[in-house]
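Subject: complex prediction, re-run

Hi both,

The earlier run crashed halfway through, so I resubmitted it with identical inputs.
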Amino acid sequence: MSIPDYMQCAEDHQTVLVVVQPVGIVPEDQFFRIYKRIASVRQLSIRDSQRLLFIRYRHHYLPENNEWGDFQTHRKVVGLIAVTTCSSSRDWPHTADRFHAQKEVYSSTLYDSRLLVFGLQGEIAEQSRPDMVFYPSFEECSDVERRVEDFVESIFIVLESKRLDRATDKSGDKIPLLCVPFEKKDFVGLDTDSRHYKKRSQGRMRKHVGDLCLQAGMLQDALVHYHMAVELLRAVNDFLWLGGALEGLCSASVIFHYPGGTAGKAAGCKPSVCQPADAGKRHRPGGSQNVVDFCSGYAINDVSKRRSQTFSPFMSKDEICEEIKELTQERQQLSEEEKIQRYSILSELYELIGFHRKSAFFKRVAAMQCVAPTISEPGWRACYKLLLETLPGYSLSLDPKDFSKGTHRGWAAVQMRLLHELVYASRRMGNPALSVRHLSFLLQTMLDFLSDQEKKEVTQSLENYTSKCPGGMEIITLPDGLTLPPVPFTKLPIVRSVKLLNLPVSLQPHKLKGVLEGNLSNASPFIYSPILMQSRGEERCKKIDFQWVQGDVCEVQLMVYNPMPYELRVENMGLLTSGVEFESLPAALFLPAESGLYPVTLVGVPRTAGNITVNGYHTSVFGVSSDCLLEDLVGVKASGCLVEVIPSLPRLQLSTSLPRSTHSSQATSKEELPSSVSVQLFNGELQQLTITLENIGSIDIETLELTSKNNNKGKNNKSCSVCVCCCSFFSFILSKRPLSTESVHQSDSKTLEAVLKFKYSGGAGKVEGYYRELSLGVHVNVEPSLFFTRVSTLPATSTRQCHLLLDIFNPTEHELTVSAKNNQDLVLHASECQRMAIQVDRFDFESLPQAGQQTPHLSSPKQLEEERQLAHGCQISSKLGICWSIISFRHGEASVEGVLNQLVLEHLQLAPLQWDVLLNGKPCDCDVVAECIVGDAVTLEVKLTNLSKNTVGPLALMVVPFQDYQNGVQNYDMDEAVTFIGSNIFCISTVKARDSSVCEGALMFLYTGDFYLNIRFQDDSARRGLPLAWFTLPSVHIRALDISTIKFF
Amino acid sequence: MAVCIAVIAKENYPLYIRSVATQNELKFHYTVHTSLDVVEEKISSVGKALGDQRELYLGLLYPTEDYKMFRKLHNSFTDVMCNPFYNPGDPIQSKAFNGVVSGMMVQTG
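This time it finished cleanly. Structure:
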């Protein structure tokens, strides 16, 4: 049984083997110090020639290997240096015996030996013996090297003599047959005289001589001998020895061509070298023939290894492959350790020729061998180390980044197996952190290849491990310097899109316009430039065009899904940001199995102002916390991650006395209103709305501004009014907000909308020019309360009054009570129509403020007219004060504005020429009966007040008295009853605008009775072109009484 | 005779792998994986020798003429590639291809 020595290389063929061994008790460190000094004599040039002798030292060499010395002389121990200590001469014989015993072991091959004795002094030391050197101690041995050189020289002499002895062709003599150990018994009883036998002996001897020549430094001779040996041995089919000869030939060629040695093969390789290549080729048959020889396992192992190592630059990989294959043929029962060694060597060889996968395979086999069940103490550490070395062969790197892009690299099934083994090995090594890392790596990179069952198993074991040792994001460094980068679980859950959300509308900051423009004008002197815009657009593409506010909760929405076949628990999920101090508020979520896209909102609060970048998110899944950066994620739609955070602003909360309506008013309203109040009102009803504003932030509100905007969608919007009155009771810290009243008058329109906007600002944000806007939508649904179907007028008895007749219709389903100023209530049933008469004073529209002056932009006369009519209507409505109420719970006003036509208006209007008739200085009107005494003169005064813009007159008035018998007969023949004092015709000269004129006359009643005075215009010419209504004078009713009657009364 | 048939993508991962003995699948995985070394070697040597990569057929790695299976397999593979619903690089999940492969295995094995 022999042990292969995998360390050998081609150069070893030319060395002579010297064994250095301790004898007796020698301290190990001392021995190795001496050994090193001895070993420093590696080569020796022989004094009288150009030759070099190379020496190979071993401190341990199996005698079994020595038996192969005939086959290859470099395996033969030719020299022995024994190191020993001997303190006293008493021990000396014993020591000497030991030395001799040691010599006996190698005696068959030994050329020479030396004993280095340390510590012995005295007469024995004085004796000069050729094979022994005495030193007083390990320190005083300066000439060890020289002694070794002497020793080597003596070996050379023996070697040279042997060579010469064997080289000389003694054809007559019988050449002894050289054998390898296992052959010996085969040749018993063989015919030694046969030609075949002789040839074989000859060939083997040639080879042996070649070996000797090579060792002795005679390269050329060695080549010649080897060639001859090859010829001879081939003829006799002695494959083992033929292989040996070829190997020797190769070695010689290599030594010849690479005097520098083959250790650094790539460096020394010259492409033009053809001889070694040839040799290699020739070598091959020899090699394969070796295989035929079943018993030569030892030699083959060794040889193939060396061969492939040496010739890797020259041989095609196929051939080497064949060579290595031979190595793998296992013929002997090897110990576990040897197996490991063998597999490692195999792996190395494959690595050498670039077969990384095969190399990895064998390394893995070696690793598995380390922990084979037959081994009592499994070497998990070694196994793990070897497994790590196999990673490149399986195109596995432990950096998950390599797997995040593109298709999966490598052979997933095999990689998974390897990772499982790594996990197991690291666990058995007692390093749970490592196994967690490997297991997370397995889960992250192989997720697509794991079956559902496997996923479950892997996660379960991961959870088991992490319960003892939670996984983190730190880099694990192994003792041998290998670093394991962290494994973020970017696939648990898978994130599909990342979207930064704007603040809710009510909290969005707005920039004051003035500040913004200042910035823009600095950027470019041009108002518009397409090129500039483009570049700016690119720059902006990552920056999002809204702002976050310091101190306010900001949201990022992730669309995630769970690829696992069971519920996934993600804990501590938060945002990773940079640029601004950010307080992330982690969330925990449960994702159902194989969930579809699932929105997750991560929130946080920026604590300082500036530009914030959302870099990623962190999670904790199965006890492994991971930081996932967005840039590492595949297939993520991110619409930009950079947002400006502006300084903090106050926050205002709004509450209303009426319930909020959640439904957004209608699609037509462009801006989304965060809240709106919806009210249903009957036309003309009044509803009070109390809005309470509360500062819920920590920042004082410094300014508050209220604006309102109406959106009328009715057909008729002329009669809508939203009046907001604020009586502000306002403190800076907390503001209790006032009442705001809103009254709506609407005739026809169905809906009415208004938006109240509160702009407020404060704190650092105000300094930067930001404000916030809170808006409240008011949505009013108007239902008709009452309709005026017809309006007409009737003149009243007084010229200054008239009757307004309104046909009122009740469109509601309730009973409606209508009341007007100083009028009776009118009760209307549902869908009932009734007429209501209201006596009203006529209106003096001229005294109204001129609408045209207030709104100068309404230039067209039509508009002016409309405006005026509106004003008139308003006035009339307020005068009328028509109110309605629906039994006890709703009440409101009604307006006639819309229904008044021009004719009615004219009737209602006070004429511009006002006539006053005074009897005895008392004004008399239609209903008033003026009393006078018969026989007394009654003064009659007619006063004209001209309120029109033009001069009027001159006019002539004739007073005609008459009596009305109340039966339709009027008696105008009053000459006997009434007499005029003076003329019965009054003349009024021209009356200028806004002037008045009075004319007086007198008359006397001769009898008692009721008389009427009809005042008529004499001549029509002056009043031509003016409306008739202007010239209606009140009729005067006079009751003439007897004086006695008065007294009686 | 065929015990394992695999189709490998050029990025070095299996598009299809199927073996007769399911209980020993991993072993075949390893075998196929390690044999890729030889393929790689061939590819690199072809590139060096001809200077261009036009010749994509590497020849037979092992004399399988006895069984005439390459042509059959390759034809079937071409059919898979012609399927407009197949994305190059995805694992092969074709019934027809599967049938051809199992035919080869059954007939010989």
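The interface with chain A takes residues 9, 11-14, 17, 25-26, 29-30, 33-38, 41, 89 of chain B (CB under 8 Å).

- K.
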